[in-house]
Amino acid sequence: MERVTLLPPNALSDGWIDPKYLPEGKDKYYIRNRQVTQPEGGWRHLHSDEIERLVQNNNTASSWDTLWVTDEFNPSMVKDNKFYGTVRIGRVSSGALQFHDLRLPVGITNSSIHSCDIGDNCAIHNVHYLSHYIINSHTMLFNIQEMSCTDHAKFGNGIIKDGEREEVRVRIEIMNESGARSVMPYDGMIPADAYLWAKYVDDTTLQERLADITQHTVDHHRGYYGEIGQRCVIKNSSIIKDVKIGTDCYIKGASKLKNITINSSNEEPSQIGENVILVNGIVGYGCRIFYSCTAVKFILGNNSNLKYGARLINSIMGDNSTISCCEVLNNLIYPGHEQHHNNSFLIASVIMGQSNMAAGATIGSNHNSRTNDGELVAGRGFWPGLCSSVKHSSRFASFTLLAKGDYPAEMNISLPFSLVSNNVAADHLEVMPAYWWMYNMYALARNTWKYRTRDKRRTKVQNIEFDTFAPDTMQEVLKARTLLELWVGKAYVKQNEDENKNTKYDRSIPNQANETLSSLGRRLLQGNREVIDNLTILGEGMENSRRPVHILKVYDAYHAYGDMLIHYAMSCVLNDERETMNDIHLLERCHHDAQHPSFPLTKWVNLGGQLVKESDLDTLRRDICDGTLDSWEAIHHRYDELWARYAEDKLHHALYALCIVLDTETMTDELWLQALAHEERIQHRISEQVYLSRKKDHDNPFRSCTSRNTEEQQVVYGEVEDNSFVRQVRTETLEYIHKIERLRDGFRNM
Question: Where would you tag: which of 207, 426, 490, 572 has the fewest CB atoms within 10 A of its CB?
Fold first, then answer.
């Protein structure tokens, strides 16, 4: 441990950078002078009468020759201070600054200031130790115990400075508690970067290149000053060390801020509240962190919040997210995450956005293992219900809803939009595919609108797909349909074997006519539902146990999946923004693309919220490895290029999926008209089910038991017909049906 040592008096003003780390011909302030913009007219020495007035106001200085001011300097506003080293002060007028109810006179009082630059008309009062900071204009500092910066400050970036050992480098250990997937943070890192780095750990060249790129993202030389942007307000705080703060940031009552960057701007100001501890991290633009939160080794995305005692450790959280009152360790969390309850925790996971953790959810408990290296991966829309306990290692398809329960074994749920339940009485796992589509259309339809509406970012670096029906979810739906076909075929064969034990039945030729199990299941699912309803259909590879996994309502789910695929494809066609619906070229292009789906059904990767074809991601990785992409800026530019052509790729994927669900290789005009008729039916059903699924809550007879009368109940809950989203969907449905009619007329006239 370090010990207290006695230094000579000049160390208070002269000590800063060890001379061995200074480039030849440079002094200890060479970086500081690059960071500071010289005021108009420059700085000047104090006049003798100004020094006299400062002394009369009980100010002292290690040397008055190293105190610099501008032409507009009012020494009467500077009282009871100690100045050490080179201190430069901008304009000091006789005015005052106000922020909310805090009003402070411009000037500096009762503070100890060491080698700082102070901008125009700042209010600095009761700052007991202010060292090596650049304070920009119109900033208010009030009642601060310590605000200092070291010569090796990194401001949360995972780099090392000259002369430092590798051991001091900050790494964020995401996705796994073992640290095997750790990444080096940098100011500007987004979930896409973190996933690219942490997922492909077996690509050693990629790992080396990303580490090198990150090390060179920030200058390795010592001597950078901490910066406080214009119009910041920092009050009643204890320790602020090695911190870089953007403009218009508001900090009140913080306990400890160390080695962090707080991004903030006039359009997207960030706020830090009472008793907050932030160490080794990056805070995005427009963030709110309040009420005794702790974050250590972290990145917080733009427009995100930590509240009410939340603990965020070794984690990266994407944009538009909120965590309150809970424990979150070793995670990579994509945009649109909500976790609000004190009795929940999330450990060692990748949560791919638009997610919600209910009270009592313990996601990633390790009591099934003696090690701490398990992981959990959940697609978009993951929602574990109240008091859900899930073990490592598990994987969940998109929009999986876990019913309340203690799940005794690891799971691999490959059916999207499912409801998963632990049937304790029967001792088996139950999975109902397409649950959201069949029974909660209100929530499903509202999902896209909700996350788009909540996106208040002005600074958008991470590209985000908000649509529920997108290539990632639909590739899971296509896979789920093939699994259901296979499992139905197997269930039918087994039932026949059980009914006729004496008949030898060849599983590879179920109908003795070269029909595979999958094709048998497909034929049965397209036939009479009574046959399916009489089967016991079991899932495979979904739980790490010997007990069965029952798949419920398979016939309805299979056809619901088909409707989803048609809706996805036709929505892409109808909502194509690149060409108007009156343009015949759109019809011709869709017709041509659908007739020639020559490319295989591409695998898609959710890259931090942006959906990317796996082949494009492989190319991106190769280009990083061979030096074609040699900076994070270049990598982000590639993300943007892929995003620019995403709509076209998505349309192609949707048309190919349409061909699969319609069981055709060529889309004829007749099939297009058939698809449009299906989509018209589906859209009417969506509108109706949005209303009916919302109406179920209103019709619940127990809602009335807490009200004196119907009038009170209506005031509290309103009428379902007045629900803003129900009304919005009805309006959008009319517009959508009009598009369908126009496109139908277009195909008829081609």
Answer: 426
